[in-house]
Amino acid sequence: MGSHVSKQVERRKSIQTEKKVLFDMKQSNGSEYPGSDYHPSDRKNWMSGLNPDKVQINQIVWPGTHDSATNKIGFPFVTRPFAQCQSLSIYQQLVTGARVLDIRVQEDRRVCHGILVTYSVDIVIEHVKKFLSETHSEVIILEIRTEFGHDDPPDFDKYLEDQLGEYLIQQDDQVFGKKISELLPKRVICVWKPRKSPQPKAGGLLWNSGHLKDNWIDTDLPSTKFENNMKHLGELQPVTSRKFFYRVENTVTPQADNPILCVKPVTDRIRPYARVFISQCFSQNIVDRLQIFSTDFIDGDFVDACAGLTKARSEGKA
Fold this sequence. Notes:
By secondary structure, the protein is an alpha/beta fold. The chain is 34% helix and 14% strand. It has one domain: TIM Barrel, CATH 3.20.20. The protein has ten helices and nine strands. It has a seven-stranded parallel sheet with strand order 6-5-2-1-9-8-7. A two-stranded antiparallel ribbon has the order 3-4. It is globular and about 60 Å long.
């Protein structure tokens, strides 16, 4: 019992120390960078506002959401706080400016996060199509994967093609160097990551797992995650030399050996430091590697941070 208490005391000290590291970094180095003062007048159409004839796909800093479809997961006030990573619906996230969705499914096509489940993926598709019908030049990366420990939904590739076919951007490495306007009216890059079923084939309507990569660091320590994100990003080639999307997740995750297991208070240890991360990318000369930047509980400021850097890139300022 005593050793357990001692361990928890040390854990709390580590967390407080790491929170202070990020706070001090923000105080001393700031969170400004080329484009940081930009705020889209219409986040629902922020890509359109940057001129689709001018912006290349590999210039976009894509604001994404982590565990996107968890706004209604589990039971309110009981299990939901342990698995909810977003409070907004899929449609609301897209209207707020999110352009990358992270959807986890199980065999019956219901969205899940670990053992907790929520609505059918049909709801996700419905919200995506509603948003697409109301906009004209916004491009979305829709990543759908079978959650760890679950089986793939049967014939799920056919389901996605049937539901989104008119919007799907064909898997093609040339897409990265194209301007948004060159892809229209197609609007969705759909990455399907099954666990056991065959991966999508080259040239098809769906993209395979090799086209969206990340280095997930499972920790609740904020500066540890921040520094590891920076390290892995620095090991990559610039976006202009890559034929895959790379995601950095500005999140930390509750750990079983820590008494605080609710997502919100844990992920809030790092969530306010998204702009600091971008600023540090400039300081370390690796901002040309940043591409997808994801968060829990997305808000307008996070979107503005990504849109501003995208604007700076399109103007040759970053």
